[in-house]
Amino acid sequence: MKDAQKDTILSHAGRDPRGNHGIVNPPVYHCSTVLFPTLAELEASDRTPFEGVHYGRMGTPTSYAFEEAVAELEGAFKSVSVGSGLNAIATALLAFTKAGDHVLITDSVYGPTRRFANDSLAAYGVEVEFYDPTIGEGIARLLKPNTSVVFLESPGSLTFEVQDVPAIAAAAKAVGATVIIDNTWATPLLFQPLRHGVDVSIHSATKYMVGHADAMLGVISCADEAHWLAVKKAATRTGACAGPDDLFLGLRGLRTLSVRLKQHEANALALAKWLSDRPEVTRVLHPAYPDCPGHALWKRDIGGSSGLFSVVMKPVPKVALAAMLDHMELFGMGYSWGGFESLILPVRPGAIRTATRWDDPGIVLRLHAGLEAADDLIRDLDAAFVRLNAAL
Known about the structure:
Pfam families: Cys_Met_Meta_PP. Belongs to the trans-sulfuration enzymes family. By secondary structure, this protein is α/β, with parallel strands linked by helices. The chain is 37% helix and 15% strand. The chain folds into two domains: 6-255, 3-Layer(aba) Sandwich (Aspartate Aminotransferase, domain 2); 257-390, Aspartate Aminotransferase, domain 1, CATH 3.90.1150. Strand 5, helix 7 and strand 6 form a beta-alpha-beta unit. The protein starts with 5 loop residues before the first helix and ends with a helix. The relative contact order is 0.13.
């Protein structure tokens, strides 16, 4: 769909009604074994294992449809679907690292990414170093001759620092490092990192792409054939693949991603504005706010926002925090985000930082603004603060 806008791509990419009896949505292929009628066709398939339908784990029409749609949104050569966001992160890191390599990972990274790097990559003989997410072009001083990967996440998990993606990518490529980014927060609708120098873009499709908190799915999009082939080989070696029903739910979720994201954004901004006026709140950590680190970069490169942000509250006893959170009517307490439902979660960014310090003594609450009416969400938060203050 040359020159098509993103809303149009969302509606049409990864579909082939003519090849599916006129049916609008691609069918779900539950598949392990694929039969070949002749020895010649079996041997031909073995010679091209990453093309066509060869074995269920290698790819099916369902996975190809989802990957085609995501690749078109990302402006990628091709995409690879796997079983979860962390599966996508691990697969991408394994694809471009080996014993003796050095990798740089932003200090604001998703906690499980940090654990995989520290526990698994390090065990394989990879040197892992974390860097200040606000470092920008200064990352050049941390690069080594054996730096194989620079890993970004922008905005960062929990604290939402926006990174200077083009500057970091340019410095990394100068030494031949592969640039990988976790782009889950922005989705391909708000930011297309491959157009800013990134080689590999990762999404936890569990979040906004699926959009309904009912599937686990990850996807890795690559700027060119060489990076795609490395990722596809890594996924094949480790058996990383996505289930057919989850792929279907991801593809279905993409169709409404644009309209949902607008509501998530509007609700999050309304909540952030209301919370910024609360006496209990000392800071709002949202890229659209001028005091959020990297706000100018957000305006330059992203310009829109999703539904996830944090606030810093004044210190309160745990009993008061429990009184606040234990009786929410609309906000649930739970991990993940990106679904239709609103979530609230106390987090501890200082507990995992190593390259930077998080010294704020206040309580950090991460909120995901779902698709409910903003006024109802605000009433739920207002009642929560009443309970908190009564418990002080």
